[in-house]
Design goal:
Number of helices: 13
Strand content: 25-35%
Shape: globular
Protein name: Ubiquitin-like domain-containing protein
Low-confidence stretches: 443-447
Largest sheet: 9 strands, mixed
Organism: Durusdinium trenchii
CATH architecture of the largest domain: Alpha-Beta Horseshoe
Length: 447
């Protein structure tokens, strides 16, 4: 027997200890660990991802790292009836598909049969990505999902039972003292699969903030149809996109679907697979006064963050927005050298957004960078001198750098979010449920 110690790759904490027969495969250990259906597990040995088919590393006791990845959903398709006794005549097959947010997945099949006492068997196969039969055939993948007898998806469990079912479930979860409290759905985030039952519940709830996640071109028609019915939506948050959304022009149908909304005030696009170079700004809904998130020179683990632009590209390729947009959210990082002066940067923001009144900033500073290497403080002061209010919603850096940047930017006149204590000085992004739209200058909304 082999003892396997499993630690979380993100924190190093002990997750589980499993004892398996010697010669077991990685797939055998994954089967033992996959109790949480909201995640898909990958195993690492010395920072190398292990494939499902290979045997576990040798040794009486080994240590592996566990990497969890969020799932879009888990689908199960069954053929035949599962036997109570494996020796009863049967022919049973179960196929499980786990899809990740990046479009990849894991496919597992279990097949057992018995035609007579001495003619039986059991096969099990697990692959670390979609099999070629599905990966190279989008229509086949669609048929698999449509024909699945059982859909195990958290968003369907919550939102797939009508608005009344959602409210009833929430009331049951609340303490008895709340009685028959009235429940209003104010915000729904991270809806990743446009299942009809889920979309019907959302349209009935009419939330003020609606969040899409992992949009693919194939999902656009369903979302366009639903957005036309969301008359109370104040902010649309779009987080992550599939690789096929490689141009910002693909968002034009969404903007046109929102054009008739009288309540929509803000659009926040986050972690896109494309930049805003060709964003159809002229199609922006007339009532939209807030836009984001513009990502400039930001990196993730040494590589450019999704949708990040060099500032020179921002100057030359980013479109000019209509003057109705008065609130802008931007995320600034330290990928490359900031060669433009803070004053010039401030003037570019004003040129791109002629109606700019509030710039919300999210700042990231690499550990290897010094506060003097970035123009964050001087940019804040230059914007304030131009009459633009600066709100710093997030600062990511070392503790010592954080205290310096926070104090310097507050001294220069910016509002900085105090993460330790929520109070009157708390600064929220415009897409946050707690953002106070009543404090937005009325003149901005009339433009």
């Amino acid at each position: 027997m082999q003892r396997v110690l499993v630690r979380l790759a993100a924190t190093g904490e002990h997750h589980a200890t499993k004892v398996l027969p010697c010669g077991s495969k990685v797939a055998d250990l994954l089967k033992e660990l996959e109790g949480d259906q909201r995640h898909m597990h990958l195993l690492l040995s010395n920072d190398r991802v292990l494939t499902a088919e290979e045997p576990l590393p040798s040794g009486e006791e080994i240590s592996l790292q566990l990497l969890r990845q969020d799932l879009l959903g888990r689908w199960t398709r069954r053929t035949g009836s599962e036997p109570v006794n494996r020796w009863d005549p049967h022919d049973y097959k179960k196929e499980i598909l786990l899809l990740r947010k990046d479009g990849q997945g894991r496919f597992c099949t279990e097949h057992s049969w018995c035609t007579r006492p001495f003619n039986s068997g059991r096969d099990r196969e697990m692959v670390g990505c979609l099999p070629h039969t599905l990966q190279d055939d989008p229509e086949g993948l669609g048929r698999f999902l449509e024909n699945s007898e059982e859909v195990e998806n958290s968003q369907q469990l919550i939102f797939g039972k009508t608005l009344e079912g959602l409210q009833s479930g929430l009331r049951e979860a609340l303490p008895f003292a709340f009685g028959k409290v009235e429940i209003h759905v104010g915000a729904v985030r991270n809806i990743s699969i446009p299942i009809p039952a889920v979309l019907e519940t959302i349209c009935a709830a009419q939330p003020e903030i609606i969040g899409l996640e992992g949009l693919g071109l194939g999902d656009l028609p369903s979302w366009v149809q639903s957005l036309q019915k969301l008359n109370s939506a104040r902010v649309l948050v779009h987080a992550w996109t599939n690789r096929d959304v490689d141009s910002a022009t693909h968002f034009q149908p969404l903007l046109e679907a929102l054009s008739s909304s009288s309540e929509l005030k803000g659009l926040d696009f986050q972690n896109l697979a494309c930049t805003f170079h060709d964003f159809p700004a002229e199609r922006l809904p007339r009532g939209c006064i807030a836009f984001g998130t513009i990502v400039l020179q930001k990196d993730m683990k040494g590589l450019s963050a999704r949708g990040s632009m060099d500032f020179h590209d921002f100057v030359g390729l980013f479109p000019r927005f209509p003057p109705q947009v008065s609130i802008v959210r931007a995320s600034l990082g330290t990928k490359g050298h900031w060669s433009v002066s803070a004053q010039a940067m401030a003037e570019v923001f004003r040129a791109k957004f002629p109606g700019l009144q509030v710039l919300q900033l999210e700042l990231s500073l690499q550990h290897s960078k010094d506060s003097n290497d970035v123009p964050f403080i001087d940019l804040s002061r230059a914007l304030i001198q131009l009459g633009v209010k600066v709100e710093v919603t997030k600062i990511r850096c070392r503790a010592a750098q954080y205290e310096f940047l926070r104090a310097a930017m507050k001294y220069g006149g910016a509002l900085v979010n105090e993460e330790e204590d929520e109070g009157d000085e708390t600064v929220y992004p415009f897409s946050h449920p707690r953002f106070d739209w009543s404090k937005v200058d009325g003149s901005a909304e009339r433009k």
